[in-house]
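During the no-cost extension, the postdoctoral fellow (Dr. R.K.) reprocessed legacy sequence entries with the updated structure-token encoder. One reprocessed record is reproduced below for audit purposes.
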Amino acid sequence: MKSLLQRVTRAEVRVADQVVGQIAAGVVVFVAVERGDQEGMLHQMAERIVRLRMFSDDAGRMNRSLLECGGAALVVSQFTLAADLAKGHRPSFSRAEAPDRARHLYHQFCLDLAQQGVEVAQGVFGADMQVDLVNDGPVTFWLE
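Re-encoded structure tokens follow.
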């Protein structure tokens, strides 16, 4: 499982010009489920994300977690994060999990985040989405 995290002041995701998920301050989590990922990995990733100190304290230092600042998470499935770009000019997506299993694990990951005490909004798995966000900082992290 791979996740790209972006600290945001606001974000929304649209499908067919309809807003399907939006948050105020928090984090956008672009997530790719890869072949061999297990449900236990989802819980670990969710716990890591909600406790990662990526938000500023009163002194301006990144010393507060998503839980501590009361932020929300917008989770967007993005299988392209599983791309292999090692050869040629065409990405290979052979590392990405099969869609049915990836969908199940994506939804389970969203539940795991919510169970950690974070408000969770979602994109639509497998849909053509437009994501509008304001990256705060900019602060961006890569988790595997």
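The chain is about 25% helix and 40% strand. The first strand starts at residue 2 and ends at 15. The remaining legacy entries will be reprocessed before the final report is submitted.
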